[in-house]
Amino acid sequence: MGYVCELDLAIVMRISGGGIHTKTGREKVLFRELLRWIEAAKGTQQSLSAPISLTLLSEGCTLHKIACQTLKKHHRPDVIRPIASGVRGLPESVTAGLGIGCLNLSAIHPTEMFSPTALALPELPDAEFVLYSRDFSDATKLRTCASFSQILVLTLDQVSGRMSCDEYPLRKNEAV
């Protein structure tokens, strides 16, 4: 027998403008972030003629799918090296020099990672973080979800020290 689970709230990352997003009134875009290719400050010693060595999360991860689809669309061969075991593991794998990663800006260690400009990788789409609710038609739940989303965005800004998209340098010898 199948298991059915109903959630009151869920926060998901999706690609901005990608696919069909039905406007049901049950979702609120919390914020958008740029996605970037990143490599360790010490580099990954990759050649333009060799397949791009990637370190990613599991195949079900949106970032994994986007990285692979983007490279495939631009006819850039890749090889997936270690697959990080979790969200914290991916930046650590990149910082250790195990491969190129694909991350949203707030997940990047700005002093330990750089944009691999020498590899001329294709541009990645933006990500958006969306709050889904079981029922936004109820006025009390709507206010609760709106308050929750404001608190969440403020908390993320304070905890991560997120910078605006314009504040992130993108050249090789500058921190991302």
From TrEMBL:
Protein name: LysR substrate-binding domain-containing protein
